[in-house]
Amino acid sequence: MDYEPRAKEFQDHKSFGNSGGGISEFIVPHLLKLYGSRATARDFEIYAPNATFEDPLMCAHGVKQIKSAFYSLPKVFSESRIVEYTIQENATGPGKAEILIDNKQHYKIFRKDIDLVSLIKLKVEGGQVVHHEDWWDRKPLKNRDTTNLPLVGRLAEYTRRGSMLITHVLMGFGKDPSH
Q1: Which InterPro entries has this protein been placed in (predicted)?
Q2: By CB atoms within 10 Å of each CB, which of 21, 24, 97, 105 scores lowest?
Q3: Contacts of residue 26, Cβ cutoff 8 Å, sequence gap at least 6
Q4: The CATH number of the domain covering residues in 3-170
Q5: What's the pTM?
Q6: What residue ranges do the domains of the chain occupy?
Q7: Could you tell me which residues come within 8 angstroms of residue 23 by beta carbon, excluding any fewer than 6 positions away?
Q8: Using alpha carbons only, what angle is made at residue 48 by residues 91 and 39, rounded to the nearest 5 degrees?
């Protein structure tokens, strides 16, 4: 198995990420695989163990739930991928960075093409993603802090968590698919 060289390579990138610059060069290829329904277990090594992922449909806590969210894409869509993107990386402190990926996503469901403009926001600490948000149409996610009525925002949060938990169960609790 080539696990040891891979682990060393990942550690090298974690150190590289501590400088606050260039970590996106390591992370983005893995994200492209996640969004392109080609993810392997190794692609999720970019996430810290307690990382979170949020989009308008789901809110995942921990790598296993994040795996369930992305492994579900090919179950729903016959095609999924990021077709265009630009990256902005900002150091936010020692060993910390924010990566903004302005992108266009393409999906196909029931032979219908869907193109979506999105802003992916990643918070990185120690070379690993600790928080990943996908803002569809570049609009902030609805929550108690971003809506006029906190109750509506709270309902949106609960709906995303419920959707994630159902997906997590259906996807085998984040189990990596056998190829």
Answers
A1: NTF2-like_dom_sf
A2: 21
A3: 13, 16, 17, 46, 127
A4: 3.10.450.50
A5: 0.84
A6: 3-170
A7: 13, 16, 17, 89, 97, 99, 124, 127
A8: 105
